[in-house]
Every structure is written in structure tokens, then in C-alpha cells.
Amino acid sequence: MNNWGLKHFRNLSEGSNISDNTGQTPLSAKYERTFINYETGELRVITDLKSKMYKRDKNLNLFLKVYRKHYMQRKISILSAVVNQDEYASISKFVNTFTRKLKRKGIDRLGYVWVRDVGDEIFHKHYHIIIATTNISGNKFNDLFCNKKHNDYEVQFVRTLKGISDYLKEKDLFGAIKQRTYGKSRRFPVSKKDKKNRIATKTKHNIIKQNCRNK
């Protein structure tokens, strides 16, 4: 956007990115910015809400870009979960619990994306999370999730990646004060080997840094 510049900024007095402190009301726009293309004179109006939704959609698109090929080739599995926010105050708490559960069956959790939501079905305030894993057989899935002794979350295999992505892109944004409305894993590894190489590289770099400090 080298040819674009900010032309106008306007507060939207009725809007707020913290609609209420319960997180049950969709976020609305707080301000808008008008940009002008200096070469063509074209104007573009972007609200802070549109910017947030663009970044959420960008996360989903990146997840699809990284994992679609491996998913279509059946090299990985992809799960979709609806998580009760009352039981998991933060998405990281669920991810850690879920990752440990997978590891007990010899399954590695790869990358994930999530969004916060409010609805009338299953859980009122909840997260939607899409998780890539190493391959999970139907029997292992049943052992892991069909006989669980709680209803803190519901899990299923993703049937169509585009379908679940489009569904989440249609969602409003929700979140109380200081709550993230969406997010993703720091990296999107595509295999167990990929994760091991990353950890080994990180360890090697840490050793080099430590040796440099000791000199």
C-alpha cells in the first residue's frame, strides 16, 4: 500500500470494541479510517472491526493453506471442537489438556486456529477450534472421545476444510474486556518430524547463545 495514505479518521460514538463486559454481545466498530490512493484518487473506508475480522480470516486461510494438501492426502487428521468457556477460562488451558490426552494415545497435536463465540446450542459462551494432528484412526477417536465422562467439549472429524472455515468466517466477533476474540498456534508444523526439527534447532540456538555469553 505504498500509494495509499490516511485521509480521514472518525470515531463512531455508538460503537465499541468492548460492547459489554460479559462477552455476550457482538463487538461493533469503534472507529473508521478512510484511505486514499494518491495515484487514482480511490477511497477505501476500513473500520477497526473489519480489520479484526480480516485478521481472523487470515488465520483461517493460513491454516487451510498449510494443511489442505496433507489433509487431502490423508497424511494428517483435522478435528473440530466446541469448547465450553465456563470450564476453560482460556483457550491455552484447553489446548494443553487436549494435547496431553492425544499424547497418551501416541498422537501429536500440530497447529490450530480458534474463535470465540456465543450461541444457543451445546454451550452458551464457547470456543470453536480446528486442530491438525498426526493420523487418528476411527478406533482411536472412539477411545479418546466417545466414552469421555464429561461434557466440557464436543469433538468431531472435519469433513470439509472449506466448509468449517467458511462457517467460522460468517461469525460475529465476541469478547469481554481484555479477552482475545480469535487466535492460532505460534507455528503450523505438518508432521512430528517437523516439530522435532524445530525443537532441535531451537535447542541448538540456545546452546550457541549460552556459549557466547560464557566467553
Attribute tags:
215 residues; globular; 5 helices; alpha+beta; 5-stranded antiparallel sheet
User: Count of helices?
Assistant: 5
Q: Determine the structural class based on helices, strands and strand pairing.
A: alpha+beta
Low-confidence stretches: none
**Overall pLDDT level:** 86
**Number of DSSP-assigned strands:** 8
Number of domains: 2
What is the topological layout?
Elements: E1 4-11, E2 31-37, E3 43-47, H1 48-72, E4 76-84, H2 91-103, E5 109-118, E6 125-134, H3 138-146, E7 153-157, H4 161-169, E8 182-184, H5 192-214
Antiparallel strand pairs: 1-2, 2-3, 4-6, 4-7, 5-6, 5-8
Helix pairs in contact: 1-4
Write up what this structure looks like:
This protein is α+β, with helices and mostly antiparallel strands and 215 residues long. It has 2 domains: 4-48, no CATH class; 51-195, no CATH class. Helices cover 37% and strands 27% of the residues. It is built from 5 helices and 8 strands. It has helices at residues 48-72, 91-103, 138-146, 161-169, 192-214, and strands spanning 4-11, 31-37, 43-47, 76-84, 109-118, 125-134, 153-157, 182-184. The protein has a 5-stranded antiparallel sheet with strand order 7-4-6-5-8, sandwiched between helices. A 3-stranded antiparallel sheet has the order 1-2-3. The longest helix is centred in the first third of the chain and has 25 residues, at 48-72.
